[in-house]
Amino acid sequence: MTPTSPNASNVTADQQAEIDAQRSDPQPTLRATAPGIEKHLYSAIPVLDHGFVRVIDYMGDDNAICQAARVSYGRGTKSVQNDEGLIRYLMRHWHSTPFEMCEIKLHVKLPVFVARQWIRHRTANVNEYSARYSILDREFYIPAADSLNAQSTVNNQGRGEALSGEEAERVLRYLRDDAMRAYDHYEEMISQDGQQGLARELARMNLPANIYTQWYWKVDLHNLLHFLRLRADAHAQYEIRVYADAICRVVADWVPFAYAAFADYRMGGATLSGTALECVRRMLKGEEVTQETSGMSKGEWREFKGVMG
Ligand SMILES: Cc1cc2nc3c(=O)[nH]c(=O)nc-3n(C[C@H](O)[C@H](O)[C@H](O)COP(=O)(O)OP(=O)(O)OC[C@H]3O[C@@H](n4cnc5c(N)ncnc54)[C@H](O)[C@@H]3O)c2cc1C
Known about the structure:
Layout: H1 13-23, H2 35-38, E1 44-47, E2 51-59, H3 62-73, H4 83-92, E3 103-111, H5 112-118, E4 124-128, E5 149-151, E6 159-162, H6 165-190, H7 200-203, E7 212-220, H8 221-231, H9 238-254, H10 256-267, H11 274-284, H12 291-294, H13 298-308
Antiparallel strand pairs: 1-2, 2-3, 3-7, 4-7, 5-6
Helix pairs in contact: 3-4, 4-10, 9-10
The protein binds flavin-adenine dinucleotide.
Flavin-adenine dinucleotide (FAD) binds at residues 120-123, 223, 226, 230, 235-236.
InterPro entries: Thymidylate_synthase_ThyX, Thymidylate_synthase_ThyX_sf
GO biological process, one term: dTTP biosynthetic process
Family: Belongs to the thymidylate synthase ThyX family.
């Protein structure tokens, strides 16, 4: 295997050797460790065709959240007997700072168009692979056939049915051929073989947005959960959602009480406006409420009906 050819985990042979070395050298520590996340440390969780998420480091666990909360509540926490109950109380009441006591550092390999969405989350620390300094690999995200969808007819910011037949084949061919041609020209432009060679910082502008980049991303648990709330949601684009889903699995292993509370109150729960809540009260009293009598717009009513099942 060459250093740039990925294996089943989407990591190169060099990266795999580094992971093996890191995992074979455990260090004794007095710090609190979370057994659930230790098993993930350094290993790559494959995402999309060449991407991955790796846990590089973490700080804190469910207990760290409770410790911080008990500093502020002191004896008051006696009413919340156990850690799980306390964490659910904090999540329920948007008492967010105790969750900021936990941090995680991830190494992520992702297509540039996914990185553009991801970087909008400003409350993290990021260090990205430099395409001014280094040469990008010939790695492009090419969707699997079942992720190659038509434009949605009901949602301008979404996709509909999977493309099929000749159209699907042609689209895939364009994606592959255009990426390869652009990369061939990129390589040719930066080459110093018999020419000066264009600067890498300029040659990269020729590359399409499905090329892969990499970064280290460090974030506290509160802001990570905010990211996951938005990006593991069904409304998020599939290509970022699969990264969020992979991170959800890591967080569930890392801080099981916090993740369960998040899954219940944030991912599984819903926020109702005052108008919507009044409708629920009227419905519970047996009144038949319609969109016309609800005081809600058609869009709000549709979403409300979705929440109420
Ligand atoms: C489904 C979906 C569709 C989207 N569509 C678009 C789109 O069409 N166009 C587009 O431009 N973006 C779009 N976004 C991006 C979205 O508007 C947010 O920029 C992104 O989700 C990051 O959210 P955030 O600002 O809450 O996160 P973070 O940047 O992590 O911030 C977390 C919280 O910190 C606070 N905060 C952080 N920085 C500041 C600041 N400078 N000033 C004030 N408060 C701050 C805010 O309370 C914020 O909610 C979309 C996002 C999603 C999930």
